[in-house]
Amino acid sequence: MLCCVSETADREQLAQVQILNKAQQRQIEDLERKLEDSRRNMRYIEHQFAIAKGFKYNIEGWQYKETEIQEQVDSQVAIAKAAWEEELDFL
User: Fold this and answer.
1) 0.85 exceeded by the pTM?
2) How far is 25 from 65, CA to CA, in rounded Å?
3) What is the Cα–Cα distance from 23 to 3, expressed in whole angstroms?
4) Helix (H), strand (E) counts: the chain
5) Any idea which UniProt keywords this protein has (predicted)?
6) Residue 7 burial (CB count, 10 A)
7) How far apart are the first and last CA of the chain?
8) Tens of pLDDT along 33-85?
């Protein structure tokens, strides 16, 4: 009888360990899925940041080009104004 009780206790303990192992395995799998989701989100955020950074550089480039064009226009206007004033003085 003692042998049967000991075997039953061992079986119960083995069943409990197996249940715990399965629960731990499910937790590990869940954590692995969450880790992969976090990595995917990080890649998405990094991609969005790269796009925003590119827009920033394009806008800065456009602003520089706009300033350069405005300076050229101002220069041409000043030349035309000076020529106009010389012509008025001539008249």
Assistant:
1) no
2) 60
3) 30
4) 1, 0
5) Coiled coil
6) 10
7) 133
8) 999 999 999 999 999 888 888 777 777 777 777 788 788 888 888 888 887 87
